Amino acid sequence: MLFLTHNHPRLQPGGTEAFALGLFRALRDEIGLEGLFLAGTTSLLRERRPGTLLQAAGAANDEMLVSLDHFDRFHLSQSDVYGLASLAPMIERLAPDVIHLHHPLLWGVEGIDMMRRAAPRAAMVATLHDYFALCPREGQLLTAEGRLCHGPSPDACRRCIPDRDGSDFTLRDLGIRSAFAAFDALLAPSDFLRGRFLAAGWDGERIRIMRNAVAAAEPAPARIAQDERRDRFAVFGNVNRFKGTLVALGASARLSRDGVAHRLEIHGGTAWTSEEFRAEFAEALAAAPDAAHRGAYAPEEVAARIAAADWVVVPSIWWENAPLVVLEAFRHGRPVICGDAGGMAEAVRAGIDGLHAPIGDPAGLAAVMREAAETPGLWDRLRAGIRPPPDFAAAAAAHFDLYRDLVSTRARRTYRAVRSRDPIAPR
């Protein structure tokens, strides 16, 4: 197997990267598959070494970094086609049965074409972890004014990105669809995400649902609440505007002004955010006396940090797809408060294992947080409704079954194609 993603968790944590690496290692360790994990990177994260695009990601000899600068985020295009071509002989020698792309960022449509040419017999799979293939505005499906967007259209996209010609959006869409035709299967981690692609005209028969997973772990113990109030809230993940950090702080500030006892802790780093956002974040934090920023964290620290919380809040202002933080919360028996639409609302069943709040609305989130803190027995009832999320062993088994079917189907098609071109082959 050959796995490709746009980053490695050792350099920058992110849900897509963490899931891709966890799945790769589970397929290797639980199923016994062999292969290579190639993580794209840029000079912002790791200086390119002379003479090669490749360098080690760490101690593992099957996890490598690939220097992939010169990427056009609008067109999802990698202009360093000479660099990509230099990888082709290695992929040819590897001769993978399966190529699994977990994100087109950095690799680009040219990378997809290179992989298909270098491994013509391989079954190719892509997981649609987000909406980058649909939305030229960082895959967020958010308008320039911050409103939820239900899907791309030439006029709507031009309103969001007015410095682009209308033809740019058409060319982008055609180029991405053409490149993704190389895949034997497309995977979606949520019904909602699949629905967005179907609404944009993608072929639903090619998009299969394959749920995300998190590492198996001993659940963190429940916090001992002396007064039986469940008023400790936590936000996990990268701190940025799209993740709704400012919304969560605004909700906390309102609760404090109203005299509602609570505690909100923000867990995550601010890397790659603008100075403008960091200034807004500092101002919002100062205005929320019952909130604190605990900084970035390593995956092995999640259990200890979540042990101090009763609720995990997912305040994202965009649709989300199938956020891993929800699965992490459920792994540790924490009900989730999240937005009332998109992939996060699909993952959290309101009134069963969590609560929904209006997306992007600090006042609405504050009202739901107050309900969570002050309603006797609510936390225990929702905690009892949590279903254990799938772990990487289960995800590896499901993916292996898919790979095996795709490899078999592709082999049969190749055999029939060869026979049809052979004039002396027996019929």
UniProtKB/TrEMBL annotation:
It comes from Neoroseomonas soli. This is Glycosyltransferase family 4 protein. InterPro entries: Glyco_trans_4-like_N (IPR028098), Glycosyltransferase_grp1 (IPR050194). One of its GO terms (molecular function) is glycosyltransferase activity. SUPFAM superfamilies: UDP-Glycosyltransferase/glycogen phosphorylase. It comes from the Bacteria. Transmembrane segments: none annotated. Residues 79-214 form the Glycosyltransferase subfamily 4-like N-terminal domain.
